[in-house]
Specification:
Length: 533
């Protein structure tokens, strides 16, 4: 062996030893780093199992709305309460859902989303149990408040899905599947609720709600992972309280304005002033506090106001149309079709829910390919076309026409626009505060629902017509022995009643107003920035 070969051999051996030493040192460093900074190993949860858990959780919330709606008349009869009191119980639930939606997603960022989801599911179980066993309207209202804690179920589940599914296109498709249950499962839950109410009483519905929520609890425990935001600062409870007061005041003011001519306008004015004052206080708190619920920089950003204004106007333009005007038109024997109450859902809400449920996954696929904003604007645009076609239906009442209108709005709003608005609330949220925008977006949904009835019904009322009806009151003073007196009393008990009822112009005006509001929604959607995904 030459001296040169020996020298090369030594160099190769030294190089190999050095590389082995580096590899050994690197492995040892990783091992030491892992021992110093232990990370909790994640269980290999299946996406399918996660989707089932989140789907059942969302469904348990949706049952509080869709399944109970057909049982309201049964509640009135079995509890011996008035229609106004039944309406108050429903208002309590929706108000509770709106308030909890404002801050629970943000609280979940701090203490863990799985913990909060299990907490609201447990509250739903307890609330359902209380509502099922009580005969006291006050206790029933408490039960409904506890059920209302599930209001942020949708945004919370979508955030948990986003934490697990990082790919934006895949998330869009899965998100649409979850959001499609937001209107019920193709109307079947509402039909089952009506059947159970007539066969077993309204209490049976609350027992079903409790069982579904218990099932959701077990699924969440065993198939989901805990997640929270990186920022572990303390919760801004002063911001929560002031924002809740501002929101609640505005919500009650809107609810009062729905009474139209019977509304107490001084109360509405006072509540609006209270809402403005507390929102200013909330703004000042968020500006100066170190750990704000919502940074004022975020509130100024167009991702916030662009999305919230679009959600508000979209809900205002559509919600009362499908959940009020169309149903009223279907039963109206003077200017509408004159269907019986039992047939109305099969022509309106059932086809609306079916197509919305089926179109959800399709809209998610389109969003993954073309983007949320483009699909959202397409859905709103088709909704505008649907309302303009609704003018023709209102002028030419027919069952096929009304069913076609319901299907068109089911596709465009329930199957597209509603899903895109929920999805944008998640994908536009900043990484250091993922809970604020979904919570505020849920508040915009609730405010829009209330404003929709207030605005559209107020416009409809301007075109109502007065009709004269004869009303025969029961006469207990009629004597069988005096036929002449009986005849006289019978005449005296026939009274004339002047009643204000919707005209064809009333229904047409509602369609026009809804379309105008949706045009505003499209314009506001131009402010929505492109998501980072």
């Amino acid at each position: 062996m030459s001296a040169r070969d020996a020298e090369n051999g030594v160099k190769r051996d030294s190089k190999r030893d050095a590389e082995n030493g580096v590899n050994h040192n690197f492995a040892r460093a990783v091992k030491e780093s892992n021992s110093e900074n232990p990370v909790k190993k994640s269980k290999n949860y299946s996406i399918i199992a996660l989707m089932i858990a989140l789907f059942v959780s969302i469904f348990s919330f949706q049952l509080n709305i869709s399944m109970l709606s057909p049982a309201l008349a049964s509640m009135e009869y079995e509890l011996h309460i008035s229609q106004v009191q039944v309406g108050l119980i429903q208002t309590v639930f929706f108000t509770s859902a709106a308030l909890f939606s404002l801050f629970l997603p943000r609280l979940a960022d701090h203490i863990g989303r799985k913990k909060v989801l299990l907490g609201i599911l447990t509250a739903t179980v307890i609330g359902s149990f209380i509502s099922a066993i009580t005969s006291n309207i006050v206790i029933l209202s408490i039960g409904r408040i506890m059920q209302g804690s599930s209001g942020p179920m949708m945004p919370l589940c979508l955030i948990m899905l986003r934490e697990r599914v990082k790919d934006g296109k895949r998330y869009a498709r899965l998100m649409a599947i979850l959001t499609s249950v937001n209107g019920g499962i193709a109307g079947i839950d509402a039909l089952v609720g009506g059947w159970m109410s007539s066969a077993c009483g309204f209490r049976s519905i609350f027992w079903i709600m409790a069982l579904i929520a218990v099932f959701a609890v077990f699924l969440v425990i065993y198939t989901t992972e805990e997640s929270k935001a990186v920022n572990n600062a303390k919760m801004d409870w002063f911001g929560v309280i002031t924002l809740s007061i501002a929101f609640l005041s505005m919500y009650i003011a809107i609810d009062e304005s729905q009474k139209l001519l019977n509304a107490r306008f001084w109360i509405i004015f006072l509540l609006v002033c209270v809402s403005i004052v507390f929102f200013i206080i909330f703004w000042q708190i968020e500006k100066h506090i170190s750990n704000p619920m919502v940074s004022t920089n975020y509130m100024k950003h167009r991702r916030t106001w662009g999305l919230l204004s679009t959600t508000l106007l979209t809900m205002t333009g559509v919600f009362a149309i499908m959940n009020g005007v169309v149903l009223k038109f279907a039963q109206d024997k003077i200017s509408g079709i004159g269907l019986s109450e039992a047939l109305v859902p099969f022509v309106t809400l059932t086809p609306y829910a079916i197509v919305g449920f089926l179109c959800g996954p399709i809209s998610g696929f389109l969003a993954s390919k073309y983007g949320y904003r483009r699909v959202l604007r397409s859905g709103i645009l088709v909704s505008i076309i649907g309302l303009l076609c609704g003018i023709f239906v209102m002028k030419n009442p027919s069952i096929p026409g009304l069913a076609a209108l319901s299907v068109l709005l089911g596709i465009s709003y329930a199957g597209v626009a509603n899903i895109m608005l929920n999805g944008l609330g998640i994908v536009l949220s900043p990484k250091d505060n993922p809970g604020y925008l979904p919570g505020m977006n849920a508040g915009a949904f609730n405010l829009g629902a209330g404003l929709s009835f207030a605005i559209i019904y107020a416009i409809m009322g301007m075109f109502n017509v007065n009709i004269t009806q004869l009303s025969i009151q029961s006469s207990s003073s009629i004597s069988a022995s005096a036929s002449s007196n009986a005849a006289s009393n019978a005449v005296q008990n026939v009274i004339t009643v002047v009643k204000s009822v919707p005209s064809c112009s009333s229904y047409v005006s509602s369609m026009i107003v809804g379309a105008v509001l949706l045009v505003g929604a499209i314009l506001c959607s131009l402010w929505i920035p492109k998501s980072e995904d």
